[in-house]
Amino acid sequence: MTWPRWINVVLGIWLLIAPAVLGYVDAYAVNNDRLLGILIVASAIVALWAPKARFVNVVLGMWLIIAPFVLGYFGGRAIANDIVVGIAVAVFAFLPSRPITRTTTTTTTGPGDLS
């Protein structure tokens, strides 16, 4: 189950394009989202092979939540986007990756069964 990592990859890509799509007017918000987008994508991809790396995205998601207040964004779209995406990134980063296991059934054949 690696889908939480892939969702964080998508959320990171969203952060890269969000300033253009949502029309950010604050340079701090633009720079923060682009930098965090790159870091979130990279961390999520690394976490596919090193599961503990997912906790980096917990920290990055928490930063996204508080960044509008620390950096003093102006513009409601940037603030709302960062809070919502930050919560989502942190939540999906907390979800563990478990390999999907398949159960196989074996049938035993008796003497003389050629199948």
Would you spell out the secondary-structure blueprint of this structure?
Layout lengths: L2 H20 L4 H23 L4 H18 L4 H19 L21
Helix pairs in contact: 1-2, 1-4, 2-3, 2-4, 3-4
Keywords:
70% helix; mainly alpha
Q: Overall mean pLDDT score?
A: 88
Tally of strands: 0
Distance between the termini: 35 Å
The biggest sheet amounts to: none
Radius of gyration: 21 Å
Q: What order do the helices and strands follow?
A: HHHH
Helical residues, percent: 55-70%
Q: Approximately how much beta-strand content do the residues carry? A: under 5%
Parts with pLDDT < 50 across at least 5 consecutive residues: none
The helix/strand class is mainly alpha
Number of distinct helices = 4
Account of the protein in words:
Helix 1 runs antiparallel to helix 2 (27-49), helix 1 runs antiparallel to helix 4 and helix 2 packs parallel to helix 4. 70% of the residues lie in helices and 0% in strands. With 115 residues, the protein is mainly alpha-helical.
Give a quick rundown of the structure.
The protein is an all-alpha fold and 115 residues long.
